[in-house]
Specification:
Oligomer: homodimer
Strand order of the largest sheet of chain A: 1-2
Structural class of chain A: alpha+beta
CATH topology of the largest domain in chain A: Arc Repressor Mutant, subunit A
Distance between the termini of chain A: 33 Å
Shape of chain A: globular
Helix content of chain A: 40-55%
Largest interface: A-B, 79 and 79 residues
Radius of gyration of chain A: 18 Å
Chain lengths: 144, 144
DNA sequence: AAGTACGGTTTCATGATGAAACCATTGCAA
DNA sequence: TTGCAATGGTTTCATCATGAAACCGTACTT
């Protein structure tokens, strides 16, 4: 996959990208979250080369993001807890893409609250005491 | 950069990844958000090849994520609004990396609320009416 | 028994990446 | 003013990753 490995990095962002920072992995996770599970479904949805898909699926399984569960002759690829926890990352990318990669209001896909079919709100970062935080309100600290 | 282009995709996640889905871009943005702005600072921080850094900086400028502002003989690379809005994406990756790519509590870097120096809370997704939402509470819809 | 769909693997050409060398400009010092 | 080093790149080239296509084995259909 990647030439230089970041899985020893101190930064959790770097380590996260080491697992899912390539061109395809997050799209596979997106499709898995939508319900796809078969090799052919992913391949058709993503239009990617089959050998690359094989490599990515193996990588995601090795990373503990997908489980390969035997089903008949072949495997179903289903998200683990770790994989499902990428939901927030996907939502963040989605919301950024909606507002910055489409003309105003032109994004044809919406993420809705299932209960009342309304668009969801923007992801929010809050302090322990509940205040909303922006980038400037935060800082990085190295532990000990 | 990428062999197959996703900038025509309907999915905002795909479009987002088309801009920042490669190995280095989000790490550059992370560093820029931390305050780095000079070519040499990025190169030293990331340890990446200079020609690749050149290509990535150009790509990020072309995508409107960084501005190249002349400073003396050379450029400073500073985040645009669009680039700063990637903060949420970075926080999502950070939180996922903290919990899943390190042993429990072993992540050496913390994101703090600047005001009271406490760790920030987890990113939250909420419905219009304020309910907290998980993946299962949401659905995708194609507009019209 | 033959055909077809599925889930891959193999092969090969080509594009992206990375290391190293190279170069131009600026700042500084002798 | 000349020389030298630091900065910010660009060029070159070897190597790795990607992608298209062909191929293959198994299972299910007819």
């Amino acid at each position: 996959m990647r030439r230089t490995s970041l899985n020893e990095a101190d930064c959790p962002i770097a380590r996260a990208l080491d697992a899912v920072g390539d061109w395809w992995s997050l799209l596979i996770v997106r499709d898995a979250m939508f319900g796809l599970r078969r090799f052919g479904e992913f391949q058709k949805s993503l239009g990617m080369a089959k050998n690359i898909l094989t490599a990515r699926l193996r990588g995601l399984v090795a990373a503990g993001i997908l489980d390969a569960v035997p089903n008949g002759a072949h495997n179903d690829y289903v998200l683990t807890r770790k994989g499902r926890d990428l939901f927030t990352v996907l939502v963040a990318l989605r919301q950024w893409g909606e507002t910055h990669q489409f003309p105003e209001g032109a994004c044809p896909v919406e993420l809705l609250d299932r209960e009342n079919r309304q668009p969801v709100g923007a992801l929010e970062l809050r302090a322990a005491d509940g205040r909303r935080l922006s980038a400037d309100d935060t800082m990085i600290r190295l532990r000990n």
